[in-house]
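ok so I'm stuck.
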Amino acid sequence: MITNKRFQLLLPILSPLIAIASAFIVGVILILLAGANPITAYTALFQESLTTYFGFGNTLTKMTPLLFTSLGVLVALRADQFNIGGEGQIYLGALGSTLIGLYVQGIPAVIHIPLALVAGFGFGAVWGWIPGYLKAVRGINEVITTLLLNYIAVNLVSYLVQNPLKAPGAPSPYSPLIAKEAQLPIILPQSLAHAGIILALMAAGVLWVLLVRSPLGYQIAAVGFNPTAAHYAGISVKNTIILVMALAGGLAGLAGASEVMGLKYRLFEQVSPGYGFDAIAIAFLSRGNISGVVLTTLFFAALRSGANVMQRSAGVPVTVVYAIQGLTVLFIAISLAVERRLKVMQTPNS
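replied:
not stuck anymore, here's the structure
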């Protein structure tokens, strides 16, 4: 019995590690097929992204939107809601902060930056509120609505930067530069790392307090565990679902806002290279643990940051890194299924 208890405690920790290790083992095969040395490739991948000044700065830059969006997926999962719409919420958040950065002028940075962040959060929250409302009130599956809203958001931003928001004389679709007072400061001089990562880590801390130390966190967990029991306990299941989906969208909206305000300083047609979908894998890989989300986000950001260096140093295509990311998701899905099966097998028959 003691062995079983220890096994159940270690399983949530071991299975993600096994999934990551399995992905890297298969990655070794892919690197060998590409005619490169796996040791050289992996050394270049992580040494550049984690131990060098500019590489680590680039890792922090990529970590910022991933962390915001992953927190959005996580808070929805706590209420047993699947937010697949992080990508679209990123685009809407980027749009909201861009509008403030472009059309609100003549105010100091101490006001302009928070105002643009609030707009990014608000636009993303609205994009999360819509599927939350449809699920809570109309019973429409949130996976379908969040997924479809992604396409609407991407095409909406594409239309705007090709037409009314396009910079005069721009050779490709992008907006004018936002006001300097709306730009996030750089935290590592001569690198791309900006204050967005500090805001993302602060958001993780606030969300931990909210979910673990507050009555609202208990309410969200109760709805996620058993909505029927939560209803009989006096908790409004509908309002909770709408709230968590709006909060999830707002956090993803901050990811888009940070990309505009801290990195690009203007709205581009392609705001995100798929951060919203990576965030789903990160949330599942971390098992709903906020500190796990932070560490897993750092891992995924390091992969993205070191991919080009690995290509230059070891001659390994960047697509191998994306394959490793995909394999990690595949293996974590397998580990979750195996873990669930083992728990069922170890549960005594009533």
